[in-house]
Amino acid sequence: MRSVRSQIALTFIVISVLVIVLLGVLLSYEIEKYYFDRLLASLRTETMVIAALLQESARRSESRENMEKDLAAFASAAQMRITLIDSSGVVVYDSSVPDSLLQSLENHSQRQEITEARQTGTGANVRFSKSILQDLVYVARKVESPRASAAVFPSLQFVRVSVALTEVNRVMYEIRFKIVIVSIMILVVVLIVTQIVSKRLTKPLTEIAEMVKEIKAGNLDQKLPVRSNDEIGRLAELINEMTDKLKADIEQLKKLERVRSEFLGNVSHELRTPIFSLKGFIETLLEGAVDDPAVNRRFLEKAYHHANRLDTLLSDLIEISRIESGEMKMSFRYVDAVSILKNLIADFSDSAAKRKQSLLVEVPDREVLVLGDKDRLRQALGNIVDNAIKYSPEGAATTVRLIEAERSTTISISDAGPGIEDEHLPRIFERFYRVDKTRSREVGGTGLGLAIAKHIVEAHSSQISVTSEMGKGTIFSFELKK
Ligand code: ADP
Question: What is the pLDDT of residues 178-204, one digit of tens each?
Fold first, then answer.
């Protein structure tokens, strides 16, 4: 697998090389063109100067010898070859060829620079010169008034200059060399920058990969440094958030697992007591007590009592597990809270009467609609009222109230029982938590009643609250939305 870093570097380098080569070629082409154009322009100027020089010499009626001397001096000073050609293409003077050999030169009328000059005034051409065996640049000019120098150079029509291309090539070579050097320097800088940039870009990715490896191994305590504000920084941030979330979730799961096994322990413990007693009574009966009319009925009643206890315990257990697993669905409707409370009181009147207690209800004389699940509310309220009756002494009174406010209705159940000490108050809603275990068992408690009530009230988006004063009584209350 090719690393992201090398991929970035490679892309960068390929693009840079392409751009640099392209720019280099373009630049050298343009520079060469510019240089060559300037050379041609200056050679054209030279032809003009020579033409003017010839005219001036003719005006002063100078001898051919003097003229040739001037031309030779000019040619050597400017490091070029000067050729004068007449209208029929015959070379009448050449600074590189002695006059005596002029006759042996080819006719120049068909040379490209000459034909061009004949048509447009000036002409240029680059080619290999057979006379001096070199690549030459030729520039020719048609002379304006050949008559002026006619005495010396009859029918002179073209002034031509030429320079060796070696010099031009040398300059070009120098330019190209410089371009190559600069390109290499730029490339080196690009390489260095690429290394730095790709390293900086991929370092966080490497760190993220390391971190994910750690997460995979179960180590969630590490944090990624967030170095930038870009996508990579955001990714690091997200991974940190994800680890935090995972950590919290795992802690939650562990806690749940603890709670579960604790619950299981509690459940087995709770079940064991009634089953143990049940077994005991049945065993005693089987061992002979069944035939003893003095005890057999009492023992059977006790066995029945424990079987009942087991039954309530199991019902409560099923309820709480249904609530906690989310299996129990609430169905919310507008229901009349007044009738719920009145029915509740009616249902518990017998058990209150058994304990010579009074059960009072303070509600308005009309319907009060609240949003809730009727059966579940009835169940929660039942558990609270049941406790009030169970834990209050004989003759005490329990009052169920309904207090209306603008947006909500509060239901409260106050008893004149023993009260609950402050230290126990926050815990009585926990499963199986009892202030006094023996007392709870005596009265047939399962330790789940308030836990169930709390769940139901919370499912109504509300909170159950409790205040208590030792020796005076306890008040449970919660609000319901109208
Ligand atoms: P239990 O089945 O034991 O009554 P609950 O969950 O209903 O379980 O109540 C938890 C504990 O809170 C009870 O064991 C009891 O100690 C205490 N308790 C509940 N209601 C009252 C009350 N009205 N007066 C005094 N103590 C109460």
Answer: 988 998 998 899 889 988 988 888 888
Checking DSSP bridges between strand 465-469 and strand 397-404, what pairing results, if any? unpaired
CA pair distance 458, 446, nearest whole angstrom: 21
Q: Distance (Å, rounded) from C-alpha 398 to C-alpha 345?
A: 10
Residue type, 162: S
Pocket test for ligand 1, best of 314, 434, 464, 474 (most atoms within 8 A of CB): 434
Outline where 217-230 has alpha helix (H): none
Residue for token pair 């030169």: 105
| Maximum alpha-carbon separation in the chain | 175
Inter-residue contact 465 to 385 (CB < 8 Å): no
Residues pairing with 122 in the sheet: 141
Whether pTM > 0.85 for this model: the answer is no
Q: What angle do CA 295, 299, 300 make, to 5 degrees?
A: 120
Q: Which atom of ligand 1 is nearest to the CA of 383?
A: 7
Contacts (Cβ under 8 Å, ≥6 apart) of 309: 274, 444
d(CA 138, CA 94): 13
